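Escalation from tier 1.

The customer reports that the assembly of two entities below gives different structure tokens on two consecutive runs. Tier 1 could not reproduce it. I'm attaching the input and our single run for tier 2 to review.
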Amino acid sequence: MSDFTSRFFRQPQGIVSAVLLTILIVEVALGPLLAPYDPETFHVKSRLLGPSTDFFLGTDQFGRDILSRILWGARTTILLSLIATLIGAVAGGILGIISGYLGGRIDELVMRFVDALMAIPSLLFALLIITVLGPSGINAVIAIGIAFSPGMARIARSVTLSVKTSDYVSAAVARGESTMWIMSREIAPNMLAPVIIEATIRVAFAIMLLATLSFLGLGSQPPSPEWGLMISEGRAFMFRNAWAIFWPGLSIAIVAITFNLLGDALRDALNPKN
Amino acid sequence: MSLQYILNRFFYLTITAFVVSLLVFCITQILPANAATMLLGEYATQDALIALEQKLGLDQPAYIQYFNWISGVVQGDLGTSLRSGLPVSDTIFQALGRSLILAAFSLLAVVIIAIPLGVLAAVHRGKVTDFVVSLISYVGISLPEFVLATLLLVWLTGPEIGMFPASGYVPITESFWNGLWHISLPVITLAIVLTAHVMRMVRSEMADALQTDYVLAARLRGLSATTVLFRHALRNSLLPTITVLALDVGYLIGGIIVVEEIFAFPGIGRLLIVSIQERDLPMIQAGALVMAFTYAIANLAADMAYVYLDRRIQYV
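Tier 1 run:
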């Protein structure tokens, strides 16, 4: 483990992502406490202001404090993306293990289906699922989770195939362990490293997709301080106050950069060969 | 490239198309309100609904409905829009044509910008150039299209600068320069995001290629730096780049949906979003099907190109 830590922090990506991640965790945990105002209070006399000492990042078209909205929105935006990725990882992981372990016709069928699903671009796939489920924040999360699962299934399957023939799996079969037990206790733990690396990079995608869906009016609904929605709402007034678009945009980019860097650093630290 | 490989790939393409069509069809079965209800509204009488359902064939079992729909699709009949009453295929293919122009210009820009920058970064590995290129590509892959597009919109179309039109579309066949001027902001947005992806790939492939034995051997033979770089290293690192470009068509399709919506560009992406908001079922189905199929074709083309260009690999 200390070996992993030293490899992780030896790279610039590791250090930068660790610092950014700490800031984000603080923001998610304490955001509402740090916020100077209530995120939904209208300050009618100070609408569409730029950054000032009263409102550090300015105000939006209703005079709501942008800083407070971003701090509150961090919870919605970041936690929902994590949940979406988790749904994708778990669903895809289970599908991949079952398909890879059972093999044969079932594997063939599942993988053809997975290949076909991967032929649909994520945003398009998510849009289709939202057409069925209806637009809301939670449905956007489910849609992204489902859209991510084929990719995860493929990774889980390839890991399963590579460990299926190993001695400890054969030993478990010889001991007469049940298929369920072998899949969950002997095979699944091998999946942790590759799935975590993939999932970390996927979180960055999830944040961007979630914000995009909200921006298109198909995700979180007003008055939620979700960052994508903030940009969508600020767009009508963009020439009067560009800050209302700039800050949430910057926030989304920072979170996505953090998880992209983290994913790269984890990959290098967990696969010393590369 | 054996004939069997090609046939194999076409077989998979057919399966993909079949699964996607099933998925797209399923939406009509899962949705609580069917086409008849959508056409007539909530307050329609029961008799009128039943009559229309019969006319549209909605009273038949699902597999027959699917069969009717898919046999129409295969013959190029994608149904009739629930909103405009016009044939879906005319609207869709017109919109697709405009989107393809957008996509073609974006891909062209990406190839022109991303490959040289990636090569530059790989050659100056660990130096300032490399750092700057890597930093830009990290920012590029972490910036959703809608954020970038909106920021560009604020910056470049505002009252002060006013360099580009904020929206609108002029056919490029009608007036080339005016048309180009109108698509420049969407193309710039798409190109920046895609460039970030492709640049990263070219850089890492090129960096690997520069450390191989054959590049070293070419250097030792005294070949000039340019020859080694372009004739030996670049050629081999472009192969994986083709695959990345094809995979990036997936991002491009996602990007096109967003960018068209922001710049009010009348392409297939905007058509899809509008159809989803209006719940125009045949249009949603056709739009999704056409986009997924375009992506599948792009991947197939990339695979073919890969096999054709890389003579070392024998695919069966």
